[in-house]
Design brief:
Bound molecules: adenosine-5'-diphosphate
Largest sheet: 5 strands, antiparallel
Strand order of the largest sheet: 2-1-5-4-3
Radius of gyration: 33 Å
Number of strands: 12
CATH superfamily of the largest domain: Histidine kinase-like ATPase, C-terminal domain
CATH class of the largest domain: Alpha Beta
Order of helices and strands: HEEHHHEEEHHEHHEEHEEHEE
Distance between the termini: 57 Å
Helix content: 40-55%
Length: 357
Amino acid sequence: MSDHFRGLPGDWLEHVPDAMLIVDGEGKIEAANPRAERLFGYMPRELPGQSFDLLMPVQFGAKEGEERGEFCAAAGEGVFVAGIRKDGTEFAAEISWSALGGSDDGSATVAIRDITERNGAAAQLVEKMTELRHSNEALEQFAHVASHDLQEPLRMVASYTQLLSKRYRGKLDSDADEFIAYAVDGTRRMKRLIEDLLLYSRAGRGSPPFRIFRSEAALQEALTNLRTAIEESQALVTYDALPTVVAADSQVVQVFQNLVGNAIKYRGEATPQIHVSARTTEEEWIFSVADNGIGIEPRFYERVFEIFQRLHGRGEYEGTGIGLAICKRILQQQGGRIWVESESGKGSVFHFALPVR
Ligand code: ADP
């Protein structure tokens, strides 16, 4: 043991929560605190003079100075290794290695922490997450099957109520006309809900393949799908030159369609004016869909993206409360994100980001 450690008391660094060692340039232990002795199962004062390899043999087995140098450099940040107790049992440890101040002979202070418990907690977390994923998958499977299988009987109910309405309107009494109208309206809404639920469950079931495509073409396709709504509302939809991106194109069409569709639906008194633009940071393409509609209060910025959350009753605006939840899911699948900025009464800007690939 070199002279300057000889005077270290047996309770050196007793109250430090980590095991602490001083190791010389040859890998020999010069001092160990009581916590280190307990952690590795040695008697007091038994460790000094022993080789550090005894405690952590993996990195030091080869006894190569160079290997040790590399390891020490890495361990400055904290690395995970297996520690070996005196009885030969192993435990997971995190060690940090720092050169001893003032000495240039390679001696260092080593802090060692038993992370078995932490590892146990991480393993439990992984287990719980796997369970959660399985139950989510089961739920999604259920939503998919239920909405898919409901379509068939619904189609039958819808076509027969429509037939009733066509054939018997004005031929029965006025109550009958009213009841049939309710039934037709109910089936129409149920159809919409089932279609949206199917879209939502599909958006969570793995993304379609990524392609390189012009996002402008995706927007144009969305606008074609919205043609009737655009014509009826006389909405003016404009857009800047939009970039070529790598993503699942059909999903991006869906996002544009939901956002522009909402911008038309939640219009105020004025004719809807909608503008789509894009900008880039180094990591993302950020698209923005701005409208001059009724706007959203800041306290609802998060809530509108949750499934079935609507800020308006059906009497005011039709809808299922699924559209923005679909957008959020799609963007999560694509490694992107979506958010809104708005001023009540002055319109909203929905932004969504796709990673630059
Ligand atoms: P839906 O339109 O079917 O209700 P969404 O998930 O698309 O469902 O939207 C959720 C809610 O967010 C809507 O009910 C509406 O209150 C609000 N919202 C969405 N887009 C806009 C918009 N452009 N302007 C104002 N409010 C909006």
